[in-house]
Amino acid sequence: MTRLYLIRHGQTEWNVEKKMQGKKNSNLTKLGIEQANKLSERLSNENFDYIYSSPLKRAYDTAKIIRGQRNIEIIKDENLQEMGFGVWEGRPPEELKNTYPEQYKNFWEKPHLYEPIDGENFKDFKDRVLKILFSIIQNHKDSQNHKDSQILIVSHTIVILQIMSYFGNRELKSMWEPPVIDPASLTIVEVNDGTHEIILYGDIKHY
To answer: What pLDDT digit, counting tens, does each position of 6-30 carry?
Structure first.
């Protein structure tokens, strides 16, 4: 059995400003660091076998906080990066609403109709996210001593939503439906021989 701990990075400066982040970085806020520390405390007794992270600084910084004193390498993988938004990245919401009204509305309200300006489309994004998900599960499916694997994955909102859409058999048009993936939230899925069970989804009881 493989137990996946899916974690979104802590709150960032651009989260506060509601700017689209995508593949550009925005640093963790003081609150974001506190959120990550509280989650680290919650998970302090978990024995992780592997830690994966998006290479983007906000996710990697969160992963380092949660790792704490564990002597485990954090494996960076570009497929865990957030969805790329192209020219939208770093721009305020009001500007995007005015400049790209139809696609901005579609992104948040009708994602199945969203067509990117020059960023990633949902098909390519889904392909890369599921590629790394399947790779992680397969690579750590069974260890030689038949020990169950506990794997920590620190990434981003839409990455986690895509993974959970796969596990929940959810269509793209329903992507933004609850539960919400809050900063430093915890989602746990157990995978075993082609079956899976969702244990937690977007849980934030640690803060």
So the answer is: 999 999 999 999 999 999 999 999 9
60 exposed, middle or buried (CB, 10 Å; 0-12, 13-18, 19+)? middle
DSSP string, 10-27: PPBHHHHHT---TTS--P
In terms of DSSP bridges, do strands 186-192 and 2-8 run parallel, antiparallel, or are they unpaired?
Answer: antiparallel
Q: What is the pTM of this model?
A: 0.95
Q: For the chain, what are the domain ranges?
A: 2-83+121-203
Active-site residue identified among 9, 89, 120, 156: 9
Residues 25 and 53 sit within 8 Å (Cβ to Cβ):
no
9 has catalytic annotation: yes
Residue type, 24: K
Catalytic annotation present for 82: yes
- 78-88 per-position pLDDT tens digit: 999 999 999 99
195 token code pair: 């079956």
- What whole-number distance in Å separates Cα of residue 119 and Cα of residue 193? 35
- 186, 206 contact by CB (below 8 A): yes
- Beta carbons within 8 Å of 178's beta carbon, 6+ residues apart: none
State in words which class domain 2-83+121-203 has. alpha beta
Which one of 13, 17, 73, 82 is the catalytic residue? 82
What's the order of all strands across the beta sheet hosting 186-192?
74-76, 50-53, 149-155, 2-8, 186-192, 195-203
